[in-house]
Known about the structure:
CATH topology: Helix Hairpins
Shape: flat
Distance between the termini: 67 Å
Amino acid sequence: MNKFQSRSFQKSVMFALNGLRLAFRSQRNFRKHLLIALLTFSIAFFLHVEIIEFCIIIFANTFVLVAEMFNSVIEFVIDAYYKNKWAKLAKLSKDISAGAVLLSAVASVTISFLIFAEKIYKIYYNYI
């Protein structure tokens, strides 16, 4: 076993939770995406979405958070490699990883909009 391998499941979980805490404390966009996810979950609860729809919303929002975390890792590694100096390959890599976050966020918004629009439509036309 090398020095980077955890000796227990409990330690592995603690390292993972530390990673989540670090993402929350250090990454402004992670906090924004998390707030949007919580707002989306609240709206889903208020609109009484079906369990499968709620699971899809959870998955879409979690995917955005995971993409944001990978984006942060890529940025940290590139900054360390290039010693925080500008380089064309560093810029391209960071732009592509940021684009992945944007793409996942657009997909998440689209999924939530489609699910919520149907529920709002039904509520609106049941009251008329």
